[in-house]
Amino acid sequence: MAKNNPRHLIQLPLRLLRFVIAWAFMIIYWPVILGLHLLILKRTPPLIMMRAIRLWARATFKILKIRIHVLNPSTFETIEARVVICNHQSTLDLPWGGYICPPSPVTIGKKEVIWIPILNLMFWALDFIRIDRANTAKALASLEGVADRIRKDRRSLVVAPEGTRSPTGELLPFKKGAFHIAIQAQAPIHPVVVHGAFECLPKSRFLPVPGDIYIQFLDPISTVGLVPTQAGELSFKTESLVRQALQKLRASYPLGQN
Q1: Which residues contact 254 (CB under 8 A, 6 or more apart)?
Q2: Pair 70, 215: CB distance under 8 Å
Q3: Domain boundaries, the chain
Q4: 211 phi and psi, to 5 degrees?
């Protein structure tokens, strides 16, 4: 078995070392960036913060020896209200999302993020949203006003509508929450598809392995004129497009789990 061969035994300490260095870089980098952000009362220009997030992500993947391939031009380089939808394959979704970070991002995470060092600081300093997934009423209350916020402040809401990492890499059914928000804000949906994050770090594994991650931007989907009762239809349409694109990426760039 691969886990017992000499090459695997040699690579394991290297993977652990790279993982530790990536975390050390994060622990040093983000308190400095967020400290400066707070020092100027959270008024860091959106494009400057976007570049800071992208720089962290690029350095992290360099350390981890993971190659990122962006297959086509980004659909969200400008500052405007939008809802970015992506498939949720791995813990690496956070740094690859940072790699292509839109201006003025805001994301939604589970309340337990408060116990994760650095991430808790990021959620607080960048005004990200924490929800209690175990309590539907509280979760809905936490999301009240999000549509107005992204519309008025021209922020990009980044959401993985599957709700949790896929245990197999296959796309899970989309939940409707993000699509309700997009319709309320009359903000376009910007689907993004990732392939390879699962192979580099599946849900069952702790240490990432070197490999390739492919990112593709799909055409934005307008929500102008849509009403809340059409959220299910919009969710189904987006899920179908993401599923088709993921299948094509897998056919074009076959990868084996390391």
Answers
A1: none
A2: yes
A3: 2-252
A4: 175, -160
Q: What is the pLDDT of residues 195-230, one digit of tens each?
A: 999 999 998 899 999 999 999 999 999 999 999 999
In this predicted model, what pLDDT tens digit does every residue of 93-116 receive, in sequence order? 999 999 999 999 999 888 888 888
CATH class of 2-252: alpha beta
The residue whose two tokens read 């897998």 is: 250
